[in-house]
Amino acid sequence: MIKLITTTIFFLGLMLGSANADPKKIGFIYIGPPGDHGWTYMHDQGRQYMESQLGDAVTSTYIENVPENADAVRAIRKLAASGHDLIFTTSFNYMDQTLEVAKEFPNIKFEHITGYKRSKNVATGNIRFYEGRYVQGVVAGLMTKTNKIGYIGAYPIAEVIMGINAFAQGLRSVNKDASISVIWANTWYDPVKEADAAKVHIAEGADILAQHTDSPAMLQIAEKKGALGFGQSTDMSAFAPKAQLFASVNNWGPYYIKKIEQLRNKK
Fold first, then answer.
1. How far apart are CA 111 and CA 162, in angstroms?
2. pLDDT at 267
3. Cβ distance 28 to 75 under 8 Å?
4. 225 pLDDT tier (thresholds 50, 70, 90)
5. Which pTM was predicted?
6. How far apart are CA 193 and CA 183, in angstroms?
7. Segment 100-143, tens digit of pLDDT
């Protein structure tokens, strides 16, 4: 699905050029649906915030549910070929696909969130989610009664392991006796797999759950089973008000605005 939105509000708070200037076309590639209530949802909230603040200085397009394979190359190329000035590819495994398309379109800017490979027209970006993970670990260490923490990981890649390590450091800073068990879901978003992993953790004695996956399924299982846990990327308390201790919220909007300001100022 491709959705193009053009707004009519002009934002005066940033020096982004006159209202008569051509708007910048900004593209987004999403790994999941905006309705996942997690990672993609917050990227789309950031996109909408960007539009609400910049008004007719920008237009935006997104393509959702793009697999991390050759389909991503086709989706990124579609945005590049349709005149977008800056394209955000918002999942780790879009890394090589982003670089491939960027070579074909040297005059277009790309930002990969969150890889580590760059080129002349490909930047990388990330959010400081490890800070929230550390605080989660501290709270888990103080709240657990069984000293068993269950963690659902998406894939065993650098950024997920970084989050687990940050969580573990926070946990150990207040509770040396607690341990973490990790189940790899091998998906970013699959409510059934996430729920199943949560059930296994709880059956093994975990009373606190954490996740690096995108749906509220883990928290919903925690609420049913009397466990506690943390929201991922966004506030998930509406789905499990008794289970969510707090959520680490990814606020992408100001970052997107900053990047567009740099684009317009040729930085």
1. 21
2. 84
3. no
4. very high
5. 0.87
6. 10
7. 999 999 999 999 999 999 999 999 999 899 999 999 999 999 99
Residue 82, SS3 per DSSP:
coil
* DSSP calls for 115-176: -S--BTTEEE----HHHHHHHHHHHHHHH-SSSEEEEEES-SSHHHHHHHHHHHHHHHHH-S
**Cα 161–162–166 angle (5° rounding)?**
115
Q: For residues 178 and 245, what is the distance between their CA atoms, to the nearest angstrom?
A: 18
Q: Do 114 and 169 fall into the same domain?
A: no
One-letter amino acid at 155 equals: Y
Would you state the pLDDT for residue 22? 85
Letter string b/e over residues 205-215, b meaning 16 or more CB atoms within 10 A of that residue's CB: ebbbbbbbbbb
Q: Residue 51 sits in which domain range?
A: 2-127+251-264
Pairing relationship of beta strands 2-6 and 58-63 according to DSSP bridges: antiparallel
pLDDT for residue 243: 98
Residues 10 and 112 in one domain: yes
- The count of domains in the chain is 2
Helix (H, G, I), strand (E, B) or coil at 254: helix
Who's near 258: CB < 8 A, 6+ residues apart? Answer: none
